[in-house]
Write a structure and sequence with these properties.
The chain is an alpha/beta fold. Helix content is 38%, strand content 13%.
Length: 332
């Protein structure tokens, strides 16, 4: 058994620069609470920081991902521009026991490039892929990425903890449900569905370690650092084209208020952005959240807030409720 397994929690470009990635803060918090040596590497942000404003606006625009994902532009423009800047990350991460990468269609090309170089330096490192890209690629992605040890296309909140614990005990990953691995015959093996749906009320409050959240401020609409919040997962709608409609879960207002208070106290930031598909899927909890926050602001328990999130049309979303929501800190 290892005394302290070292885990690098990574995000590669291209991804949003408006706030620290929620997944990195959540995984880092989960691993630290389990006693592991975890460190966040937001390579996406650090890459943007070496660019001038014109490059940032082009490469991190809504359509900028084409330059990162197109094979020609990636090899001809991206690699020559950032290869030197990525060398230090590659060298440092290669000294870890495990490196986890959150993958999206927009950052999979860079993730492959960086993780492969890390593996070339240290073939003993265990590289985990998770995130939305894995939902569509499923286990077949491993065939094209033999340097990747584990691929997870399910919610990783509990799975990441089980994976690192299994590594720490030297038990392998066969008993961890919800992942793809290679078996003894070098064939892709799915370890089986993980039927327990994550109760997001029990997820650790995100911890972004030694990241300076003020570094994200220049990329926000009001030039202030924002902290991402997750109050729910999924959606109550039944749109047939969407993957988020099957299971809807939400945090209770009390849990959300506690999280907002702790994050504001720790980071001295009062700007929050909900990453939910909709913040009022439960109108009961949404009203309670507004009522509680407005009362806490009024009695001085917390200072004024600046928040926003996507909401659905509902008969109770009237002028009276919106005025109260504004008082609670909602700006949009």
């Amino acid at each position: 058994m290892k005394v302290s397994t070292k885990v690098a929690v990574c995000m590669c470009p291209q991804w949003s620069l408006e706030s620290p990635p929620l997944s990195l803060g959540m995984f880092n918090s989960t691993l630290l609470n389990c006693g592991f040596d975890s460190k966040i590497f937001d390579i996406n942000l650090k890459t943007a920081k070496v660019c001038n404003v014109e490059e940032q606006q082009e490469l991190w625009s809504a359509t900028g991902h084409f330059l990162w994902t197109n094979t020609h532009s990636f090899n001809e423009r991206i690699v020559p521009r950032f290869n030197k800047d990525w060398e230090n990350f590659i060298e440092e991460i290669s000294e870890y026991d495990i490196a986890t990468f959150t993958t999206y269609f927009s950052n999979i090309t860079v993730t492959d490039y960086i993780s492969k170089k890390i593996f070339d330096i240290n073939p003993n490192i265990h590289i985990f892929y998770g995130g939305p890209y894995c939902w569509s690629s499923r286990g077949d992605a491993l065939y094209h990425r033999p340097w990747v040890k584990v691929l997870c296309d399910r919610e990783g909140d509990n799975i990441i903890k089980e994976l690192v614990m299994s590594y720490n005990l030297g038990n392998g990953y066969e008993k961890v449900k919800g992942i793809y691995i290679f078996d003894d015959q070098n064939q892709i093996k799915f370890t089986g569905d993980k039927y327990d749906v994550v109760d997001i009320n029990n997820i650790s409050i995100p911890d972004w370690g030694d990241l300076d959240l003020n570094e994200y401020a220049p990329f926000t609409y009001n030039k202030n650092p924002h902290i991402p919040l997750q109050g729910s997962r999924g959606c109550i709608a039944k749109c047939t084209f969407c993957a988020e409609t099957r299971i809807y879960r939400y945090k209770t207002a009390d849990i959300l208020v506690k999280e907002i208070i702790e994050l504001e106290k720790k980071y001295k930031i009062n700007n929050f952005s909900f990453v939910d598909s909709l913040i009022n899927g439960s109108m009961v909890q949404f009203k309670k959240l507004i009522e509680t926050l407005s009362n806490l602001i009024e009695n001085g328990t917390i200072k004024s807030l600046n928040m926003g999130g996507y909401a659905r049309i509902h008969k109770d979303m009237d002028d009276k409720l919106m005025k109260k929501a504004a008082k609670a800190g909602f700006k949009w």
